[in-house]
Amino acid sequence: MRKFLLYITILTTGFVFIGRLFYLQVIDTSLVIRSQDNAIKVVYDYPQRGYIYDRNGELMVSNQPSYDVMVIPRNLKPFDTAEFCGILKLSREELENKLDKARIYSPMLPSVVIPQLTKSEYAILQEKMRKYDGFYIQKRSLRDYQVDHSANVLGYIAEVNPKIVNDNPYYISGDLIGRAGVESYYEELLRGVKGVKHIQKDRFNRDIGPYKEGIYDTLPEKGKDIKLTIDSKLQEYGNLLMQNKRGGIVALEPATGEILALITAPTFDPAELVGRKRSKNYSKLHYDTISRPLYDRGLLAEYPPGSPFKTLNALIGLQEGVVDTDDAFSCNHGYTYGRGRKLGCHSHSSPLTMIPGIAQSCNSYFANVYRRIIEKYSTPQEGMDAWNKHLKSFGLGDYLGSDLSTGRSGKIPDAAYYNKIYDYPTYKWYSTATLSNAIGQGEILMTPIQLANMVAIISNRGYFYTPHILKEINNNPIAEEKFTTKHITSIEEKYYDPVVEGMHQVYLNGTARSLQVEGIEIAGKTGTAENFAKIDGKRTQLTDHSIFVAFAPVDNPKIAIAVFVENGYWGSRYAGRIASLMIEKYLKGTITRTDLEKWILDPSHSLEPEYEKPLSGEPFQINI
Amino acid sequence: MSKGNAGFDWLSIGIYLILVFFGWANIYSASLGSGTGSYFDLSQPYGKQALFIGLSLFLIIIVLSVDSKFYQRFSSIIYLISLLSLAGLFVFGKTISGATSWYSFGSFGIQPSEFAKFATALALAKYLSDIQTNIRKLSHQVRAFIIIALPALIIIPQPDPGSALVYAAFFFPLYREGLSGFYLVTGFSTIALFILTLVLGPIYVALGVLLIASFIFFKKRSKRPGRALISIFALCAIGLSFSVSYIFENVFEQRHRDRFNIVLGKEVDSKGIGYNTNQSEIAIGSGGWFGKGWTEGTQTKGHFVPEQHTDYIFSTVGEEWGFLGSATVILLFVFLLIRLLILAERQRSQFNRVYGYSVIGILFIHFLVNIGMVIGVFPTVGIPLPFFSYGGSGLWGFTILLFIFIKLDSERLSF
């Protein structure tokens, strides 16, 4: 027995020790994480975000340095909070709040305490930084806007939210990400790739060199510079013309589908969403639910297109062979159908063939054409679907698939739609039930960019490229198949000529003859769209929307444009003027029709009083 | 070599060499970071340790060359020299981190307490192997106790309680030679009572003691010790458990209390008192199965574990060599100790056996306390890991201790 005491003791000790080691090294994996928190600091090297240029190489967006105050809560030591708050102009409660938030996010990972200090704010802090253990400065690059317009196109950058951090391992709390516009859609091009450095720390939290000689480190990759298809000058001018109005302008280059201008009104200066005041300004814009400056009307607003849509019905009529350019229809201040129902029209000579029908925008003419299209087939359902199919080939009723971060599909009804609302087959419906479609009212909705694309198709005589906003990446033209594929419509090329001619006549001696610009042959179409709003639960008609679509020059189209001015009354009143000025600006670079410009910019032609009406709570008159 | 040479035990020597060289590799890693990185840079611990290892090889040759009779014959003189060198510290000693345990020679120091261990072992062996000594007699027990306690008593006030604790190792040879099991039971019960009292509080412990005592008390006469003895024991135990609280609260210093509380899990370590152990556990735990590789340990490089190249050297093993490496080191120690036990048991002479048991006891206590501390199952007591930890005196002390026994074993047939 005496011999064995030591044997047993030694063996037991060895057994217990190995068991304990097994627990520490193999079973308890938390120690590995703790060792990394202890000894390895991950530092990111943020590359410069890519610059954004307009189509002519004019710089729109560059960068400026900014400094974030970061904290790693676990490393905090007691510090002079009064001094710290003084430097950063914070209240003590705000600081406590921010530190609590950081602690909740993670005691070991860095969080932003104060984002985006300017250079001068940073200078004061820099000297004192050594006194604040646990805090450090992360240099970042912020956007520096060279233009005060195009906020809707450019978008903005902001700190990532926790959801993005969870979903996308690339981002950590405090990183910046593109939101809205080009910044969002081309985030991965613009941001580049941040570099990572793993730094070995010692127990005093000092850096003692790279971890494993840097085998896990990566170099930052600079963001790519991009050139947009936007014309900054045109964009600026459109912005000016749209002041005191609501609506959108979309201008395309028909031959390529490049977006020349994308304007929404009202809008804001992109610089408002940079730096420490970003969050306050954003709230202000976000909560302006009346004028909705963050709402991109050029892309998102779905309006009834009104008369410009008649051109499509003319094309479908010709393609379907139900109408000839020489067929004339009479008009008696409107088109009477059914049991005494009438689609009204204004005064013009009668009867009219196709070209004057377009030029005079005769409702009667297009009611006839539309009925012939639908009634060509044995059932209205078949007719409706044939009509719908043609329109789909124009990219209508669906998302365009552009490289803009937002969009709407609009609406083009089909047979199934009417079957549903008329409860077919319990109740039957005929072409007359959908007659409003003839003149672009009724169930049709289009966004301004769809309208612009429609005009571009007409100007191209039957094809389009998907509208897009990116022209070059690091000086290399884009070659993305999506934007270089020609989409051909279901209407044969030859049928476009009479429609183009009709639109040219609109400009020469039709509804837009007042908008003529010397030396530029424009083809256009006015539109005046009825619209309604709910006021105190009652459907109330508001002043018509003013719409104008155009392209120029007629024979060699360089620009196709759609202008939408909410409650601007008839088409040539606001939208026509603006479109004509935009075309002149783009093609000539100067304005000769200064009378038009003066009229538009005149404060007495502001539409703000019109927008006040439905909010006033008092009865009001429309279309005056 | 004298006649009757049975040859050296190459197995023990082999394990010794593996431990020493593996230890050096870990010291190199733990103290890397400054200096030239040359293995023999004498301004760095790893360079010095290389020198110490070289000198210990030299020492081994000397120890193995001396006739084994020398150690028996001169043990008393060696013991006396050792005591004098310890006592001399009070006059000539140099104070390093609070302990006056060193004689200083330039940048090198000699720590006599490391050499006092083998001297005491020799003296005890000599005394116990004396034909007139009967360890069952109380007076002889007292004398043996004095031999052991003298160096410990000189070491304690230096202060170096850790080194003094090592002298508990001599219990093993005493017990092997016939010391009553009563001491073992009493010692164990005292420790158990102490810990139980700290965990449960004196009331529960007292109730438990009464329960057990009454259980034995009413057993048949033939199956129990005298009732008076049981009563005395029970009373002592209860008295002890009540005085433990008093001792713990009033005699212990706060740092001692903290060390106990943390190991016993009674106190969540928020103030960083258990920093050493905590960091050491993190370093070891982060090693996983295979470790991070030699000189690749992040905790070791960052010097998160204090005293890593000395008392906490095992944490480097754990981090850089993983479970496989650290378990191997444990097994090497266990093999060495078992091997030495086998050697000790095959000695014909009582002197050799007592010395052998002393060697095993000393190595074992170091192994137990040091690794126990590093892996967090023992309170913090600063003693080195034999053959492994940085330090010339320690390495030489252990080398001499071990190789005298290997020498004795090699000539066991001549006795």
Automatic annotation (TrEMBL), chain A:
Residues 46-207 form the Penicillin-binding protein dimerisation domain. It is found in: Cell membrane; Membrane. The keyword Membrane applies. The keyword Transmembrane helix applies. GO terms for molecular function: serine-type D-Ala-D-Ala carboxypeptidase activity. The chain crosses the membrane at residues 5-24. Its EC number is 3.4.16.4. Keywords: Carboxypeptidase, Cell inner membrane, Cell membrane, Cell shape, Cell wall biogenesis/degradation, Hydrolase, Membrane, Peptidoglycan synthesis, Protease, Transmembrane, Transmembrane helix. Residues 247-580 form the Penicillin-binding protein transpeptidase domain. It is a single-pass membrane protein. InterPro entries: Beta-lactam/transpept, Beta-lactam/transpept-like, PBP_dimer, PBP_dimer_sf, PCN-bd_Tpept, Penicillin-binding_protein_2. It comes from the Bacteria. It is an enzyme of class 3 (hydrolase). This is Penicillin-binding protein 2. It comes from Christiangramia antarctica.
TrEMBL record, chain B:
It is found in: Membrane. The gene is rodA. It comes from the Bacteria. Keywords: Cell shape, Membrane, Transmembrane, Transmembrane helix. InterPro entries: FtsW/RodA. Its main location: membrane. This is Rod shape-determining protein RodA. Coiled coil: none annotated. It comes from Christiangramia antarctica. It is a multi-pass membrane protein. Pfam families: FTSW_RODA_SPOVE. The chain crosses the membrane at residues 7-29, 49-66, 78-96, 102-124, 145-171, 191-217, 229-248, 321-342, 354-381, 387-406. PANTHER family: CELL CYCLE PROTEIN, PEPTIDOGLYCAN GLYCOSYLTRANSFERASE MRDB.
